[in-house]
Amino acid sequence: MLCQGKGPRLRERRLSCHYQVLKGVPFFRFRAEDEWDAPYVIRYYDVLSDHDTVEMQRLAEPLLQRATVRNTVTGVLETAGYRVSKSAWLSEDVGEVVTKLNRRISGLTGLDLTFAEMLQVANYGIGGQYEPHFDFSRVSFYIFLFCLLLFLTDVPAGGATVFPDVGATIWPKKGSAVFWYNMLRSGEGDYTTRHAACPVLVGSKWVANKWLHERGQEFRRPCGLNELA
What we know:
Its cofactor is L-ascorbate. The chain is mainly β. The protein has helices at 50-60, 96-109; strands spanning 17-22, 25-37, 40-44, 65-66, 69-70, 77-78, 83-84, 86-90, 119-124, 129-133, 144-151, 157-158, 161-163, 168-170, 177-181, 195-197, 200-202, 205-213. The longest helix is centred in the middle third of the chain and has 14 residues, at 96-109.
């Protein structure tokens, strides 16, 4: 139902739109739209230009391999039937487009990308999907504080990102970026962030993911007084 944009919508407050100023560059503003309130999910528009989206696909395509997941017991990366896509990892060395995007993400979030994963670019063909999962994990040091999901293409049918526990459906919009925190300020995982990538029904879905480690953000996103916040 959620993959069709239907189902219960457990929203607690009114959502709004505003402009987000890039930190350090006051004249550089992005249109921003609240997609959900709990967990807080926000979409930034026009984070990527058409040239950026094409260039990222060009850089990633020769590197694509079957996407893997981390085994929660062993910590080893392995393929799984519940994740059907191909992915590639891009460092800043491969092109200026990745360097510029990292600076933009840091400016939007105010966080230090020194402790971030490389940019992951993923392609979902017809039937490509990723069943409900969490992005946070405490295996080894892989504790992902936030996820930034960038859409490199529109999708004619299917391909939504859904949060089944709260009834949220996020549709792909080329050039936009969707952001949410996987962790509470207390350092505990936010279990309302369980999400899934719905099957692609028509077309091909290209996305990019940026994950940031909890480590290194202690003074940029400090713990609060409420352990559940």
